Protein 1
Amino acid sequence: MLSSAPGISIIDITHNVPPQDIQTASFYLMMSFEYFPKSTLFIAVVDPMVGTGRGIIWAKTENYQFICPDNGIISWVEEKEKITEARFIKNVGLFLPKVSSTFHGRDIMAPVAAALAKGLSEKKLGPVFASYRKNQFPHPARIGNRVLGQIIAVDRFGNATANITKQHINAKSIFIVSDKIIKGLKLTYASVQEGEPLALIGSFGFLEFSVRNGNFAKTFNVKTGQEIEVMVSLDE
């Protein structure tokens, strides 16, 4: 990108998405893009189907643009801003001369992004593509004093984030994840002894399960998509 558009600024959001984990990538993209200046273009390269028939898309919301494989990674952006247009990237003249079957991030997405940064009209990328793959955000369900949810992201520290926010629970809630019972919400990681598991509201505003100075996901064999249950205290 810098070879084609030397004046652009490149910010690496993360290289710590677990391999092939589209759901965790969707979560980080959803929670990150609004912190950037308007008109920022994001490239998301978590692409387990690289080299197959899946397409590559460009999409935009009112304030941002995105380039990514058509694997649903962009879906959760709409929890924050509606996607107003998407296009199937077909203009091979924008790609590198030699396109690897295993590295479309370098050979297709990066040069297309550079072309857009230099002022290329999105209309030259390819046709409007409204049928791109969409994975719905898994909102939790409330049944009486029970909240049923799932793990939607695991970070490199092994912290497991659920699709549950503070509005669904209270400080005295009881959490059941991977047959582990955790009682009550804590304020910080340091609220418990080293090696002890805890539940808290993380920096993204979602319920998070952690082990102080440890790895919750590895310790309790927790993965994205895994179901969890919360018993909400009726005393508060």
Note: The first helix runs from residue 22 to 32.
Protein 2
Amino acid sequence: MQLKNCHNIKDFRKMAKSRIPSPLFHYIDGGADDEVTLRRNTQAFDTYDLIPNGLADVAEIDLTTTILGHKISSPLFLAPTGMSRLFHHEGEYASSKAAEKHGTYFGLSTLSSVSIEDVGAHTSGPKMFQIYIHKDRGLTYELIERCKKAKFTALCLTIDTIVAGNRERDLRTGMTMPPKFTLASLANFAMRPRWVMNYLTHPNFELANLVGRTEKGSQENISVIDYINSQFDTKLCWDDAKQAIDAWGGPFAIKGVMSVEDAKRSVDIGASAIMISNHGGRQLDHSPAPFDLLEEIVDAVGGKIEIICDGGIQRGTHVLKALALGANACSMGRAYLYGLAAGGQKGVEAVLEKFEAELKRDMMLMGLNSLDKLDASKVRRRNW
């Protein structure tokens, strides 16, 4: 299979599965417990129809919008995801460069395999850094200062990962960082010789932002679940979020907001944006889909804070539905990781190109030439 034959995210997923070892694919692909929320995230978009209008001038389509202090060319950006060099040897270099080429945000995780400084030097596009509050609070504020020096555009704090979700696929496959080559896992890796060759002939995997600060995940093999449970602070509270906002002093998002109450608290502490997100269904199973919460959160805080819908997006129509219900932008994680695993930077670019083509075509079919004309009148809840 080749990238030119990938016509949708399911195709990119299939190609990714054929390119990388099974434990790594299932790390991207899996969710928590019974994966009810994982499936629900995408299914939720089916609850609304789009309402088209004809005889409109749609010769020119404007997809630009402004989010977190920066104008971007598309309302969809790359959410922060960890350890990308496990999925392709180009890792975060590839994804950040693809985002820059398409004029949209790239999100870099604390658990990235390329450092803040290297990404800052590698791309001039808008960049968001995602922080977790570690038990070592000094480490958290050190990361914020490094982002300032590397000229990152915005920061976001993930609040839904004080303890790892029950990711049973990772438990079954023995997923670790770095990958552990054991007799049990050898067959999985041997079936992907191209991945093995690239892994062995490129710099060693490490959690690049944490080298010299923690041995976990860089100098020793550890599961992602064990890393989260041993390093992240379960005492995290809203005062910590406020202190991080004050320390950064620029555009700041709270990621993992899943209730009106938390949305209001985010406004109160001075956040610039909220990312309605359940961590891709990887944390609390049976929680709602972000799209299902969008209306009530927009009703509560719309106009007071920017709202980003994060989770389950696989089509341009999904983005348009979220914007029509009041989201200012959307972000994706799995979708572009499938592209990265399938073909590095070209794979991520192919994913972004597919979304942009769908967005433009769907806008034309709806009779809209700019995003500011999307509102609740352009969608209708299905009568099941």
Note: The first helix runs from residue 9 to 19.
Protein 3
Amino acid sequence: MTGPVEAIARAVRQGEVRAVEVLAEHLGRIARTEPDVHAFNLVTSDVAGRQAEEVDRAVAEGRDPGPLAGVPVALKDLLCTRGVPTTCSSRVLEGWVPPYDATVVTRLAEAGAVFVGKTNMDEFAMGSSTEHSAFGPTRNPHDLSRVPGGSSGGSAAAVAAGFAAASLGSDTGGSIRQPAALCGVVGAKPTYGLVSRYGLVAFASSLDQIGPFALTVADAAMVLDVISGHDERDSTSLPGAQPSASSRLGRGVAGLRVGVIAELVGADGMAPDVAARVEEAAAALSAAGARVEPVSVPSVRYGLSAYYMIAPAEASSNLARYDGVRYGLRKPGADITEMYTATRSAGFGAEVKRRVMLGTYALSAGYYDAYYGKAQRVRTLIIRDFEDAYRSYDVLLSPTAPTTAFELGAKTADPLTMYLNDVCTIPSNLAGHPAVSVPFGRGTDGLPIGVQVLAPALGEPVMFQVAEALEAAAPTGGAA
């Protein structure tokens, strides 16, 4: 049995199908198609088999197997998994096996999920195409000549290809939402602090968040509800009970106020077919009873520049630990300095080196205020402009990515062109706000297009409420 999370979990819980049968069907699909897609760095069939057997045992004994009973889930390969290699798609973590699970991994397991594998990604989550992986690129299941987006491209592709009913990715500047758009699935970045980052290998600690990919909006909300909540092991985790992402599903959008962000619809490089789908999405919400208007959020146009100062600076700090001493790859040298240099030169790929050097420069004496400090001030402006917009609107609407999936190799030689893929997603990370990408028709090339719903902090319930309405109104078939 394949399909949506809710359907699989319900069938397993009611004894209509066994978890091991669900797993066998997904593993069969992986065996047939994964060599072409390369969504996984590691398929964990043994781990999944044990988990599926435990779910079936619980059902047979009348015990509650959990809300995700028997649901095959894929994990981005920067989430620590006890006893299973975690590579971040980098040679520098060669041979490292975590001694503990990330909090989200524990929560999924307790909910009855079955882990089918660790997914490929841009190295240390730095990229927008999943081409910057030490283990080769992932391909888009809709067109194997195209990228799946990144950095969580393997997680998006795993769901799009039917290898898993849901998956987890991480989103630092759009790394869940952009690949979700390119692969035609739902992908959500939660409010910063709603989901624990304990056990997430850090890229940029003030921006990183873990979130779900799924086939439907309801499934994404369901998985988010399982993994969210306070964790005392994460100092940035929000305290207290938080609203359920699923709590407003089924209510429609009548009376809600929706602002369409003018600066993002008209961003440089925005493809006409993508802009057209956003206009259609706005019209659909209006027809469903929402009040829809254009809105200006002026400072979002500076988000890309601010992000590429802040994120590399934090990466420079976080990646300093990969020195060949404590874990992972070690290259010999005549002294410790030479060993550090040899290890990091051999272990890191070109994009990681580029960002570490950029971040180190931005933090260096004499340049901190001019670059990093100024970028943080821009971040504050973005937060304030969003606050102004949310005084008048319940949610905001924009494109998710400026184009449909591009061809493999088309942008790897020009980093600036690659970075522009995140122009619509980065502002939410800088503000710490939630956002979700919903499939909404196809482009003139027949490939999926995603529309993004943005909400204020802890606005997940209304965000998913609007996303569900878009899902119901989405065009089907080819280009509209």
Note: DSSP finds 16 helices and eleven strands in the chain.
